[in-house]
Amino acid sequence: MLEEIPSIHTLSWNSFSEKEFISSITKYNNLSTPKLDKLLWKHLKCIVKDKSYLKSIVNIANTCFELNHWPSHFRTSTTIIILKSNKESYNTSKAFRPIILLNTLSKLIEKVIGYHLQFYVISNNFIHSSQLGDLKQRSSVNANIALTHFIHTR
User: What are the boundaries of each domain within the chain?
Assistant: First the structure.
């Protein structure tokens, strides 16, 4: 008999926390290019130092998720094409690099949502234990440990 796998909508969802936003925003580089809303990460980092602004951002994220609605302002993007340096010819698409600019706040909220989804996916065993790439606590060090363990048990 097949076990029914719950959808992401049936899982209990904890509200986002201020700590998650602080943790996520500190990982962004202050020297990155301005986003679609012309807001730099260093500006947003200063804004979230004020607890009332941080609470408002967390409230926006929680409300978006509870209402299952992502505002159109957060979905708007602009693509800028940049020439790659030292190319002999710019006649092919490989000579260009597209950069997509999104709203800075939406990128931050999406990052926190991604951490939540990753937690639920891993904690509910939706990902095979051999899947190690791009997952928290499943780095190349973990892959080496798993491989070493596999070799020694054979």
Answer: 18-123, 128-154
Q: Cβ atoms within 10 A of the Cβ of 18, count?
A: 13
CA 6 to CA 13: how far, in whole Å?
13
List the beta bridge partners of residue 96: 83
pLDDT digits (tens, 9 = 90+) for 13-51: 568 889 889 988 888 877 776 666 778 888 888 888 999
DSSP string, 40-79: -HHHHHHHTTSHHHHHHHHHHHHHHHHHT---HHHH--EE
Q: How far apart are CA 35 and CA 106, in angstroms?
A: 11
Total count of residues recorded for the chain = 154
Percent of the chain with pLDDT over 70: 67
Bigger pLDDT: 76 or 154? 76
The pTM is what? 0.65
Q: Which residue has the tokens 């340096």?
A: 85
Pairing of strands 78-83, 96-101: antiparallel
